[in-house]
């Protein structure tokens, strides 16, 4: 049986990714490893720290020891730690947002990125720019923080989270060719957006599709 280990930095990514794995890779054994202190420490520091990267390494090492065929990093805020760890972990690692960034860079030159956590914004923008450079393209990235939305979600007020985020996305959609939602926790809003002028990309499905492709290539 295929075993997939998912590294989470908070509880909000567990269910969206679980749902996508159940749909797209239904016969897989899934191991969820969740440490909500990781994202808290990144937010407190304002950036990815060596200590957080070291803990990510320990969790991925544990996943490898548990026989995982592939590891999925579920958090964009610590995604850059994954880049460094790929040379240290034998098990293939997929970043939840990498496929989304590739798609966004292919759609248009004006890319909007929405985040509810400020520490997710910079690494997501850097990833998009890198994917555009790999395609030989130049992109203009417009950044937006949906202020207060993440705090509302953590406090259990999903309605307020959705209201703040929806308003931010709609305003940004008038200025860009594609909108990128930088966090898994934001994907829940996509069905409620209705028809917008531009596509809105979220990472859970494209990230799990990337896992499926990686497994097929093993």
Describe this structure as you would to a colleague.
The chain is built from nine helices and eight strands. The longest helix has 17 residues, at 118-134. It has helices spanning 14-24, 37-45, 50-65, 79-85, 98-107, 118-134, 149-154, 158-173, 203-217, and strands at 3-8, 29-34, 70-73, 93-95, 110-115, 140-145, 178-181, 200-201. It folds into two domains: 3-96 and 205-217, Rossmann fold, CATH 3.40.50; 98-202, Rossmann fold, CATH 3.40.50. The strands form two sheets. The protein has a four-stranded parallel β-sheet, sandwiched between helices. A four-stranded parallel β-sheet has the order 6-5-7-8, with helices on both faces. Helix 1 packs across helix 9 (203-217). Helix 1 (14-24) links the parallel strand 1 (3-8) and strand 2 (29-34). With 218 residues, it is of the alpha/beta class. The mean pLDDT is 93. The relative contact order is 0.16.
């Amino acid at each position: 049986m295929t075993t997939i280990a998912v590294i989470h930095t908070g509880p909000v990514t567990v269910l969206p990714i679980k749902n996508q794995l159940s749909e797209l890779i239904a016969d897989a054994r899934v191991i969820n490893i969740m440490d909500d202190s990781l994202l808290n420490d990144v937010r407190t520091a304002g950036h990815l720290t060596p200590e957080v990267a070291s803990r990510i390494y320990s969790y991925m090492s544990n996943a490898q020891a548990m026989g995982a065929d592939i590891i999925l990093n579920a958090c964009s805020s610590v995604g850059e730690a994954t880049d460094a760890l790929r040379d240290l972990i034998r098990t293939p690692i997929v970043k939840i947002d990498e496929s989304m960034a590739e798609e966004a860079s292919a759609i248009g030159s004006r890319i909007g990125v929405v985040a509810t956590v400020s520490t997710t914004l910079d690494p997501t923008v850097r990833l998009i720019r890198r994917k555009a450079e790999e395609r030989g393209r130049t992109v203009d990235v417009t950044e937006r923080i949906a202020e207060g939305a993440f705090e509302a979600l953590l406090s259990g007020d999903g309605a307020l989270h959705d209201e703040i985020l929806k308003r931010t996305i709609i305003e940004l959609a008038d200025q860009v060719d594609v909108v990128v939602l930088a966090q898994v926790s934001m994907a829940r809003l996509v069905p409620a957006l209705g028809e917008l002028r531009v596509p809105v990309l979220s990472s859970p499905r494209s990230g799990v599709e990337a896992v499926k492709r990686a497994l097929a290539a093993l």
